[in-house]
Amino acid sequence: MTRMKNGEEIHIENHSLADRVRRDLKKYDMIYMQAPLGWGKHTFLADFSRKHPELNICLLEPGSVRERLGDPAASGSLVIVPRLEPLLLSGEWKLLWQRIAARDRREKYILAASVDLPEELLAFRVSGSLISYGVRELRPDSGEIRAYFEQKDIRLREGELLRIERDFHNMPLCVYLLENPLRMSENGYSRKVREQCFEDVYSWIDVTFFRGFRVEDQNALVCLSCFEELTEELVWTVLDLPVEQAAGLLRRVTARGSVLESDGRGRWRFTELFRRFLNRLVHKYTDSETMRTIYRRAADHCERKGQYKEALRFAGLLEDRDRMVRNMERILSGEMGYDSFLALEEYFLRLPGEYVRDFCPELAATGALLEALGGSLPGYRKYERLLQIRKDGQEDPEERERLGRRLFRLRMIRPGGITPEALKTYLEELEADAPSYRGALMDGIPGNFRPGGVSLLHGDRDYCAFFMDGADGSGLSGRAGETFGGADAAAGLLLRAEVSYERNRLDETLDLLSESLRRARESGSRRIRLLCGLKLSELLIARNQADSAETFLLERQDDEHPAEALWEQDAAAHRIQYALLKSDEAAVETWMRERAPDEGGRFYTTCCYQYLMKAKAYIWQENYVLARMLLQSLLEFSGQYGMYYLGIQTRILKAVVYYREKNEQWREELSEALERGRRTGFVRVFADEGDALYEPLAELFGGREARNLEKYRKDVLTAVRAQALLYPGYLRRKRAVKTDSFTVHEKDVLRLLALGEKNAEIARALCVSENTVKYHLKNIYQKLGAKNRSQAINLITEYHLL
Question: Where does the pLDDT of residue 530 fall: very low under 50, low under 70, confident under 90, or very high at 90 and above?
């Protein structure tokens, strides 16, 4: 795996982990390293033992515990157990535990394992004398990977290191086995190299680990590899085993570690690497009839348990179309969100056209929405017409009503803008199809739909058209609660609060949000409660409380958010706004690398908010070409789908980009955004861009004085200026400013400036003229990147210059 250099093996040197271990040994009696195989626990601890003889380390390998512990050890020594599992499976653990429990020595311990913390050690964790390390602590960084390969005389570019981190998460086992494929490659790190490395890793797991299981356990694990989650009941049902044998299988497997991860509630999941290894075995060695039998049992089990998404997956593996349709209908009748629809796409596309056309109207509605989510309005309209034709040709009144309700609901939940005229037409058509229908709007296809996005006013559905030219949205407010979640009035209050916020009536916004939050708690509307929290966080930012917004409200969002991929991704994107306000480089770069959507792939309408935040991050990075391209895509989408608010946002950001590039098109973009904003009276959409927008806005208005402006433009300029003063340098990467950057005289002025002294007072204190003070202040502003006195004072505090 590694070649020798000066008599020693070359391996990844995890300096950050070694430094942390030394620090934590001073504070804790025990360190427990828990991670699956492949994370280099043994290699690291063996290297740590060699490099720190001063710690008087006793290294306990399996089979040597009795002998080593029998030797008298010096007081204060460190006992390291690099492989705990063999000790737990033998009598050696009792010997070690007796030594730990006696506590008559002042020894410290480092235990490494792939299994959960033994029950005997829980007391140490509770008492605060034990700290646990996981994969996050054991993972080496890209710099350490680069250094390892350089010792091997292999030079990797930055992009190759990033791809290795993405593909293998810098797992040491994979990195070690990457050496030979890299040496044989003429093109550096490539897809072929990656696949060869995975094959070598799987072979290593097979020979050194998997063959240590009983043959019957190996076969059982292969059969169970198709499941996302295991329970004892599922194991005995699918494998057709007695209950005791199923429980014994799970005990044996979990005792070995690295295979299953427990959630502590009687459920297990395969570790990522081991699942990949098992899937390889399935494709290579398992006969299809055996797997089909397993899939049928699994589908039956999941249907009995009401786990229709899992049942659908197994029906797909069986290619049983009738069963796929049956389970899709069951899923569609439950609580739904856009993410649930997208999860059905793979199975929907595998159904022949006659199934969609003749068998199930719900599938036609699903196809329409999938087309809309994928950015194809023509595709959406094709399915919509299919439903319309089927409804119009229906003679049975009950079936016509059912189809009419589904068609209405489809029109209401597809992403895009909606106008009062369109809503009126939809309602009239629904009344004609279902004259006796008085239920909530939520009763159409698909059952109980949850709104998407981080806003009701301008999320996946845009309702700005109801608030044009001073309108209060009365055409919508009467049905707002029904549209967004049954008869829940909390939604209607939240919609009014969002409009008040956009019109910069912040006190009114707080009152409406408080009432909406109270109603949401009473009615159990978790999504409305979460959306209220997001809007409250924006309100706190507007009131110069960004830190409170992030640490309080968004921390609560983490505890409450529903387990939905799209919501989690939107919430993560929403947090980037706080990182951009503070120019938190680590947070922005991490999100861009790990969580940001790929605009180069398929454009999903549900990700438009994430795309927008990525465009802001590009602007912050001064990557204006990519920002312009992404904003242009968003602008085209907003026009095609009628997303009024998104159209304003994208034009504002395009104006910022053009202004920084000294392209006069910024005037046209900003003027159009202002005209669209004036029609709705929205101010905050401009104010929230603060310092990034203030200069172009002031220049467009003919200077920084707003006395002669019409009221709306004056309100916008005032709000933008206020935001710019609160958060200077927004959407600009901050360069660290140190005290050494200032001259002695500038430091004197800096100290008095931070105390709030006026120019005249500074001049008297320093015995200089006011002109000299102004000269020093000009230099200080330039070095801080501040535009005025208030910004300079804020930046002095932020950079800890005093």
Answer: confident
Rounded CA separation 383/365 (Å): 7
Instruction: Round to whole Å and give the CA distance between 347 and 324.
Output: 7
In degrees and rounded to multiples of 5, residue 79 shows phi and psi of -100, 125
Round to whole Å and give the CA distance between 795 and 802: 11
> What is the per-residue pLDDT for 671?
95
- 437 band by pLDDT with thresholds 50, 70 and 90: low
DSSP symbols for 401-417: HHHHHHHHHHHHHSSEE
Average pLDDT on 234-253 reads 90
- For residue 241, CA distances in Å to 52, 225, 297 come to 51, 17, 13
pLDDT at 195: 92
CB 294 within 8 A of CB 240: no
First vs last C-alpha separation in the chain = 53
Neighbours of 319 (CB within 10 A): 11
749 and 789 Cβ atoms separated by less than 8 Å: no
Nearest to 454, CA basis, from 603, 559, 606, 598 = 606
Q: Is the pLDDT of residue 737 over 50?
A: yes
- Assess whether pLDDT exceeds 80 at residue 362: no
DSSP assignment letter at 664: T
**Do 674 and 716 form a contact (C-beta atoms < 8 A)?**
yes
**Cα–Cα distance measured from residue 44 to residue 39, given in angstroms and rounded to the nearest whole number:** 9
Residue 658 to residue 699: CA distance in whole angstroms: 14
* Exposed/middle/buried for residue 548 (C-beta within 10 Å: 0-12, 13-18, 19+): middle
Average predicted confidence (pLDDT) for the chain: 84
Longest dimension (CA), the chain: 96
Top-confidence range, 326-330, 407-411, 426-430, 679-683: 679-683
Which residue, 84, 79, 71, is CA-closest to 42? 84
* Spatial separation of the C-alpha atoms in residues 145 and 429, rounded to whole Å: 64
- Yes or no: say if 92 and 67 are a contact pair by the CB < 8 Å rule: no
Distance CA 677, CA 717 (A): 13
Whether residue 53 has a cis bond before it, omega within 30° of 0: no
Predicted local distance difference test score (pLDDT) of residue 357:
67
| CA geometry: angle 58, 59, 60, nearest 5 deg | 110
What was the pLDDT predicted at 514? 92
Task: Write the DSSP string, 614-631.
Answer: HHHHHHHTT-HHHHHHHH
Q: Give the pLDDT score at 565.
A: 61
pLDDT at position 719, please?
94
- CB under 8 Å to 188, separation ≥6 — which residues? 156, 157, 160, 182
CA separation for the pair 200, 161 (Å, rounded): 19
Q: How far apart are alpha carbons 500 and 506 in whole angstroms?
A: 7
Structure confidence at residue 332 (pLDDT): 74
**Rounded to 5°, angle at Cα 349 from 309 and 341:** 45
Element holding 122 (H helix, E strand): helix 122-127
Local structure of 4: helix, strand or coil: strand
Q: Pick from 134, 133, 119, 81: which is nearest to 271 by CA?
A: 134
Please give the DSSP secondary-structure letter assigned to residue 230. B
SS3 label, residue 148: helix
Angle made by CA atoms 366, 494, 500, in degrees to the nearest 5? 125
- CA nearest to 626, candidates 607, 645, 653, 604: 653
The confidence score (pLDDT) of residue 508 equals: 93
Q: What is the DSSP letter of 305?
A: T
- Rounded CA-CA distance 610/607 in Å is 5
In this prediction, residue 315 has a pLDDT band, given cuts at 50, 70 and 90, of very high
| Count of CB atoms situated within 10 Å of the CB of 438 | 6
| Sheet order of strands, 78-81 included | 57-59, 78-81, 108-113, 30-34, 130-133
List 416's β-bridge partners, or say none. Answer: 461
E strand map for 345-429: 416-417
